[in-house]
Amino acid sequence: MHAFSYKDGSLHCEEVDLAGLAAEHGTPLYVYSAGTIVDHFRRLDAALAGVDHEIAYAVKANSNLSVLRLLASEGAGFDIVSGGELFRVIKAGGDPAHCTFAGVGKTRDEIVYALEQGIYSFNVESEEELRYLDEVAGSLGLVAPAAVRVNPNVDAKTHKYISTGKSENKFGVDFERISALYERAAAELKNIRLRGLQMHIGSQLTSVDPFVEAVDKVAPLAAELKRLYGIEFWSIGGGIGIIYKESLESGSAEWWEGKEAAERPLTTDLYGSMLVPRLKDLGLRILLEPGRFIVGNAGVLLTRCLYEKKGSAKTFKIVDAGMNDLIRPALYEGHHEIVPVKQPASGARVTVDVVGPICESGDFFCQDRELDDFRPGETVALMSAGAYGFVMASNYNSRPLPAEILVEGDSATVVRKRQALDDLIAGEL
Ligand SMILES: *Cc1c(COP(=O)(O)O)cnc(C)c1O
Fold it and tell me: What is the pLDDT of residues 113-127, one digit of tens each?
């Protein structure tokens, strides 16, 4: 569920009219609902109540300081993938002792920074990295807390670019090799404290089955590592999928209630009810690393229609947001619903491509899609843009980054200013 809906023909985020925000702050404009973010966090937290757990929000999904601050105040930990993300978490008041550090390519500087800040665990992706971590920690006279990421070789059945748990992916250590690696580490690496085990099989999983398969496969290993080396946590990763199609409708409780159980998207209740019984007797602290689930449906990207261009084969609606602002359609064939912020009186529908101003054919938000008609000058919302949206935005084509707004009830706060032209050349000589 989420807090975007029409009220009196105008799309609102919580109590705030989005057309008004677009008029005041310009477009393209990211708008997030604080209430939705908190609601998603609490739902997932409640669904895992039956087991000792911690939610380590995956910062890369949306790393705005105000989003991090909100989640820190809810008691979230953080899963980071760079020194820069750790810096953000600390700036937002997050506690490094509740941070896990993922990623296949940590640099020495990042390792030193994270060690000095006292993070909870390095989630290591290879033996080479573990040995390097040992060496760096030793050189500082420190002991590095670590978990190794196991690749369970489970098919997450998601887009190939966001599947991570198969043997052919670059992530983690093969399931068959992991026990021997812990054994060598325990025997040889004196500056490593084996604190946990980690896995993450992919992103945007819309069925609970791959999670169940992975947990069933890896649980005996987790139990064994606890017995042998006293590990204290098992991170089962993130990856809970969200609704992209019918995104607007899925904001309401009625929509969910109207779905048969079998066709209902993955819910926290289902996730919890399938996984908690499998996890609760392990005696391990269970970490979750959700990113998209927390913030994805909690954000939209507002964009204004500039032109309508009728070609011989197609009609294009050219908008002022481009793939540099939201790259998911170009990168992952991502789907975002496109809805006008003012409900059209006519009810007219059109089949169009909605495209941006960037000089790339991949710069589109939809192709041959039937939409409510909208005209040049009108604003539309690209739904479900809260995750992997702004964080992937770039200055390509020398376009300033859009502003970000956080809505709480009837108040809207600019949580990141729109870039000015001078920002584009800052740092250049
Ligand atoms: C990206 C990532 C996540 C978050 O994935 P979502 O699909 O956004 O929940 C969690 N853990 C790791 C290691 C990741 O790389």
Answer: 999 999 999 999 999
Which residue from 54, 57, 59, 60 has its CB within 8 A of the most atoms of ligand 1, so it is best to mutate? Answer: 60
Q: 342 CA to middle of ligand 1, Å? A: 35
DSSP 116-133: HHT-SEEEE-SHHHHHHH
pLDDT digits (tens, 9 = 90+) for 245-271: 988 888 888 888 888 777 778 999 999
Quick one: which atom of ligand 1 is closest to the CA of 60? 1
CATH superfamily label, 34-292: Alanine racemase (3.20.20.10)
Ligand 1 centroid to Cα of residue 292, in Å, is 8
Whether 13 is catalytic is no
Q: Relative to the CA of 202, which ligand 1 atom is closest? A: 7
Q: What tokens were used for 424?
A: 């584009």
**pLDDT 10s digits, 51-102:** 999 999 999 999 999 999 999 999 999 999 999 999 999 999 999 999 999 9
Ligand 1 surroundings by CB, under 6 angstroms: 58, 60-61, 79, 102, 200, 203, 237-240, 289-293, 387
| Residue 364: its H or E element | strand 364-372
Q: Decide which of 1.10.3720.10, 2.30.40.10, 2.40.37.10, 3.40.50.80 is the CATH code for 4-30+297-424.
A: 2.40.37.10
Helix (H, G, I), strand (E, B) or coil at 58: strand
Task: Evaluate whether 4-30+297-424 and 34-292 have a shared fold.
Answer: no
SS3 content of the chain, % helix, strand, coil (to 5): 35, 25, 40
Tell me how far the alpha carbon of residue 39 lies from the centroid of ligand 1, in angstroms. 19
Which residue is catalytic, options 13, 99, 359, 366? 359
- Distance between Cα 76 and ligand 1 center (Å): 15
- Site to probe by mutation for ligand 1, drawn from 289, 292, 331 as the one with most ligand atoms within 8 Å of Cβ, is 289
* CA distance to 104, 277, 414, per residue, from 236 (Å): 17, 14, 34
Rounded to the nearest 10 degrees, how much is the dihedral formed by the CA atoms of 74, 384, 393, 26?
-100
Q: In this structure, are residues 28 and 381 in contact, taking their beta carbons and an 8 Å threshold?
A: no
Query: Where are the domains positioned within the chain?
Result: 4-30+297-424, 34-292
Q: Which of 285, 278, 259, 149 is nearest to 206 (CA)?
A: 259
